[in-house]
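W.,

You were right to be curious about this one. When I first looked at the sequence I had no strong expectations either way, so I just let the prediction run and decided to look at it fresh. Below is the sequence, 85 residues in total, followed by the output.
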Amino acid sequence: MARKPNAAFMKKMSISPALEKVIGKGPYPRTEVVKKLWAYIRKHKLQDTKNKRMIHADENLKAVFSGKNSVNMFEMTKLVSKHLN
């Protein structure tokens, strides 16, 4: 029996202007926001090479990460959710 996707994750969310600079104009479902965020992080090589859990913020991400220079991937999820409505 196939799992039914959770409707809450598939609901399109409006995105803050700060997050829009990173992933583009929304609205997107939460799953797509995370995918696009990781694509941005990889493209700009912002993941720590030794500790892969750490993300180093560039100017655009700093606005999303409440001004922090680096966050771990779990903290990143919490900070990004503040930019979704």
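Here's what jumped out at me. Strands lie at 12-13, 28-29, 54-56, 70-72. And, maybe more interesting for your project: The chain has a mean pLDDT of 91.

Coffee later to discuss?

I.
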